[in-house]
């Protein structure tokens, strides 16, 4: 079944990484894939354009089905292979609601992380803008710290079991230790990262350049 799948992906991209984790969790190893370089604009190749009008990664194809948004691809894999590998969406409506809530809240964390520095145009990098972005990210981190505190030590994002919330959010959280966020700023998130970083599906899909260069720049050292 995995042989009829094709994933176009870029290393270090949280959206790409989460789809790869989902594929591993659903025991779909052996899928076809093509690694494309963002730096070289390889993701704008004709193969991707033919499948994805937004010309973005990930681009995922299973038989005649094309799913290009990472959340949609992850949910598709869980639905299509529900009885295979890890169950990532619980049946209980209350548990399911929390999984979906944390999944979609990940967009807030990723956006505020990105706008902390990377996506601010050079001409807009005024002290007031950077200060506002920093405060926004710190406020967001406090929310996630509170979520994990409420779940209890050793818990995942939506409870005692690994779920789609973790598949979706871990690739974003992993950037904080990599970019030298002070541990005291988000101790619960750091514990969560340590708990999950050696999980089989995560290790199997670890970003290539992170293997070569385990530590990134000190972007978050002053958070």
UniProtKB/TrEMBL annotation:
Domain GST N-terminal, first and last residues per copy: 3-85
Superkingdom, natural source: Eukaryota
Organism whose genome encodes this protein: Carassius auratus
Domain GST C-terminal per the UniProt entry, residue ranges: 92-215
Cellular-component GO terms for this entry: mitochondrion
Name listed for the protein in its UniProt record: Glutathione S-transferase A-like
GO biological process, one term: glutathione metabolic process
Entry's Gene Ontology molecular function annotations: glutathione transferase activity; maleylacetoacetate isomerase activity
């Amino acid at each position: 079944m995995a042989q009829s799948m094709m994933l176009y992906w870029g290393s270090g991209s949280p959206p790409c990484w989460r789809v790869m984790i989902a594929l591993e969790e659903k025991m779909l190893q052996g899928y076809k894939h093509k690694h494309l370089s963002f730096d070289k604009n390889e993701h704008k190749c004709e193969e991707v354009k033919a499948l994805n009008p937004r010309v973005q990664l990930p681009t995922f194809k299973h038989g005649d089905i094309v799913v290009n948004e990472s959340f949609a691809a992850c949910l598709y894999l869980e639905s299509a292979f529900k009885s295979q590998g890890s169950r990532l969406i619980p049946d209980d409506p209350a548990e399911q609601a929390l999984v979906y809530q944390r999944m979609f809240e990940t967009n807030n964390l990723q956006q505020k992380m990105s706008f902390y520095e990377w996506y601010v145009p050079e001409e807009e990098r005024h002290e007031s803008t950077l200060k506002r972005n920093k405060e926004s990210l710190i406020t967001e981190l406090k929310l996630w710290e509170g979520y994990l505190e409420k779940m209890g030590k050793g818990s995942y994002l939506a409870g005692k079991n690994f779920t789609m919330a973790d598949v979706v959010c871990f690739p974003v959280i992993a950037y904080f230790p990599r970019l030298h966020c002070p541990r005291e700023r988000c101790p619960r998130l750091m514990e969560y990262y340590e708990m999950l970083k050696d999980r089989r599906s995560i290790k199997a899909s670890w970003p290539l350049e992170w293997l070569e260069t385990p530590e990134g720049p000190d972007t978050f050292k002053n958070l």
